[in-house]
Amino acid sequence: MSGRHANPLPTTRRRRGSGFTLVELLIALAITAALLSAMLLALHAAFRGYQASVEQSSTHITARVASQRILALVRTGSTFGPLPADPRDAMLRSDEFNVAAEDGAMLSFRLDRGGRTLFVRAGDGPERTLLSGVDGPIDATGAAIGAFTLEFEKGTRLTRASFDFTVAGAPDAQHAIEGDEVTPLRVIGSASPRRLAALPGTFDAP
To answer: I need a labelling partner for 96 at 20 to 30 A (CA). Which of 19, 59, 112, 158 fits?
Structure first.
């Protein structure tokens, strides 16, 4: 009698669906979030660097133009001030500087330390902002030193004019992008008038 081979019992197989499991979705979301975070940080750093570069360039250009204008006025000016209270004093340091240009126009520069602004005024007209974010020099003790140094002979003849101030950037030059990192720029200049003949001063000491 031939043996009978019993047929194996039918088994049901669960077919796996084609979608992702919950664990796989969570892992994919975590990786995507990490990549997006890294990309946003890189973009943020790039935007801050771009803004700093733009503001730094603007500050340098504005400060350079202003300093060159002051030096040109010193070289071509005819009358300068303020004058020392004592004619025997050969040097005066002040946050103000006055000059009569070749065409006779009176120009006055004044550093407002509280407002950190360098103003310019033509004649009796109103003061106008020349530079913003300006700080004047200080000594080792923190006391303010005049931003303009005027050297005289015989109390009225200017032999050399110098200026020294730091420009940190104008507040109104900020961009919508977050970040205002601007390296302060120290502006130093010195010049002598071309007309060294003694001329009567028309500006009084403050």
So the answer is: 59
Two tokens at 176? Answer: 């919508």
**Model confidence, pTM:** 0.66
Distances (CA, A) of 160 to 26, 47, 135: 74, 44, 22
Question: Could you report the per-residue pLDDT of 117-159, keeping only the tens digit for each?
Answer: 999 999 889 999 999 889 999 999 999 999 999 999 877 889 9
| Higher-confidence position of 199 and 155 | 155
Go through 158-194 and write b for each residue having 16 or more CB atoms within 10 A of its CB, e for each that does not: beebbbbbbbbbbeebeeeeebeebeebebeeebebe
Block residue for tokens 């499991």: 21
CA distance 168 to 162: 20
CB 152 within 8 A of CB 91: yes
What mean pLDDT do residues 166-183 have?
57
Q: Are 100 and 200 within 8 A, CB to CB?
A: no
Q: How does pLDDT run across 185-197, given as a tens digit for each residue?
A: 899 999 999 875 4
186 vs 82: CA distance, rounded Å: 24
Q: In what order do the strands lie in the sheet with 117-122?
A: 79-81, 96-100, 106-112, 117-122, 128-132
